[in-house]
Design goal:
Strand content: 5-15%
CATH topology: TIM Barrel
CATH class: Alpha Beta
Structural class: alpha/beta
Largest sheet: 8 strands, parallel, barrel
Distance between the termini: 21 Å
CATH architecture: Alpha-Beta Barrel
Number of domains: 1
Length: 275
């Protein structure tokens, strides 16, 4: 999916919601555990219930790799289901890969060649040759970690050089020499609030993947006030606040209701920004 197609989906659906599929068998409704493939069964029901209200899905690979081959098969089935029945939804493989060049090239082949997802989260710590192999696939996106919402983000990302430039800014500026607004996004945590002003000063047109709204306490209104641009430029992710809103047999129905609530808030915010 290219940039213009993503923008059109946001404008058509009046939503920039990304639903995180962080499927944990300790948290799914217990009646699903009796079935042959509880991870995919859960994902399928969540997808069917939330698809009208979102533009993207973000399966987190750690939650699938934790269950070995069965987990990876469930991930692949989830991706294939999305591509078959919801081809206009943007798929983010949240795997945070990034290694020396030939290793990154194999990761890129895995996710963009084998699984054929739209985008992949990438860790930038090893620099250019660890990131550029992912940028060679037409129509695919790198979503680079920039300023995250976890406590440990202060350990490195906010440290400054002698000129006062924080590390996250250096990462974002350097990465824009490797990719463009057509194939490069940045991860910025929703709890960063007013710092989105600084983010937009550094990368005014790039899309931002924004986790942390809902269960992590990030404010959707603040994210939009400081982070939305003329194309929207945001994919706001919610995981636990949607997929685990109920642990009963009505889990999919309740997830749909939560996604609809966020979508309606997003519609209002888009109108406020004349979109």
């Amino acid at each position: 999916m290219d940039r213009q197609q993503l923008i059109e989906q946001i404008k058509t659906k009046r939503s920039f919601l990304c639903v995180g599929l962080d499927t944990d068998l300790k948290k799914v409704p217990q009646h699903l555990l009796d079935g042959p493939d509880p991870i995919f069964t859960f994902n399928k029901a969540i997808i069917d219930a939330t698809a009208p209200y979102c533009v993207a899905y973000k399966p987190n690979l750690a939650f699938y790799e934790a269950f070995g081959v069965k987990g990876l098969m469930a991930f692949e089935k989830t991706v294939n289901y999305l591509k078959k029945y919801y081809p206009n939804h943007f798929i983010v493989a949240d795997a945070k890969r990034g290694d020396i060049g030939n290793t990154s090239a194999m990761y890129a082949r895995t996710f963009f060649g084998e699984y054929d997802v739209d985008s992949l989260t990438v860790a930038p710590y090893m620099g250019e040759d660890s990131v550029t192999p992912f940028l060679g696939y037409e129509g695919k996106w790198v979503i680079l970690l920039a300023l995250t919402s976890n406590k440990g983000s202060h350990d490195f990302q906010l440290t400054t050089d002698p000129e006062g430039m924080p590390l996250y800014e250096k990462v974002m500026r350097k990465a824009q020499q490797w990719g463009t607004e057509e194939n490069l996004m940045f991860v910025v945590g929703a709890t960063q609030g007013k710092m989105f002003e600084d983010i937009r000063r550094i990368a005014p047109r790039h899309f931002l993947l924004v986790p942390g709204v809902g269960a992590q306490g990030g404010s959707l209104e603040e994210v939009c006030k400081y982070g939305m641009n003329d194309d929207c430029g945001l994919l706001v992710n919610s995981s636990r606040g949607i997929i685990y809103a109920s642990d009963g047999e009505d889990y999919a129905e309740v997830a749909g209701e939560k996604a609809k609530e966020l979508k309606e808030q997003m519609d209002v915010l888009l109108k406020e920004h004349n979109l």
